[in-house]
Every structure is written in C-alpha cells, then in structure tokens.
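User: I'll paste a sequence; please echo it back and then give the predicted structure.

Assistant: Echoing your sequence first, then the prediction.
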Amino acid sequence: MVAPQQTPSADEIVSEIRIAAPPERVFQALVEPSQVVQWWGHAGIYRCTKFESDLRVGGAWKSIGVDGHGRQFEVKGEYLELDPPRILSSTWVATWTGGAKTKVRWELEVSENGTLVRIRHSGFAAHPELAQAYRGWPRMLTWLQALLEKGETVEQRAPVSWS
C-alpha cells in the first residue's frame, strides 16, 4: 500500500493515492450510499452513518455521521460535474465550518494496476481558516483504498481512543 500524498496551496488542497481497482469500481464506492457508509470513517475519529445521493448535475447529496465525541455532523452539496467513471465534482458544506461553501472534485485516472485517485478540495482563498479542517483527506483516501483492495469496512477498524 502506497501512502497518499497531499499538496496544499492558498486555495486548494490536493491529495492522491493509487488504488488497485478499476475506475468504475472506485466511482461506485464514491456515490453508492451502501458503499460510502462502509469506508467513510473510523470509530473514535468520525464516520458517515447515512449517505444520500441524487446522482445528476444539480442533484443533491448528503452525508450524516458522528464525530469522535459522538456529536452528529452533516456534510451536503450539489453535484456540479459528472463524467463517470472519471470525474465527480460537487459543492461541499459542512456543519463544522459554519455553512461555508467549498468545492470537491474527484478525478479518477486509469493507471498501472488500477486507478490514480486525486481529490481537489478548493475554495479556501475565501475561507483560509477552513483549510486546516480538511487535513484528513489522505486518511480518507486510505479508508477508500482499504475497502476496495481488502474489503475492510469501518466496523472492522480498531476504534481510536483520544483519552
């Protein structure tokens, strides 16, 4: 397993990882509600418990979950660009950011032995204080990779304790 990479700039955080699965399979894991809740999270950190998706340009998506302290959170947005299985782009509004709207763009490229997955989270020039809140993208990419390469789900990960 290759560790994900992250590159920050004033407006954008870019993270990428190679996953040994075809782009079609990766795309499904990003948009199908039953799959998103299998990989998005880790007990003791945060986890998605419900995912809804109206997969069309202009359609809404929503993730509901709990943070490491058991508090509920919500992330929602609207799909901006869809080109399965290559591009998935949407707005991103999280409860922990006070309603600030940013943009997330997933880019999937065929690579040797699978897919290069790149996520671009932008809009931080207008909200520079938020960039730190999204330093966890590399960790999320490893969770996606674990599901697709090993079948590992949120429930199978050892809980993290902050005590």
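The first helix runs from residue 23 to 31. Helices lie at 23-31, 33-39, 137-150.
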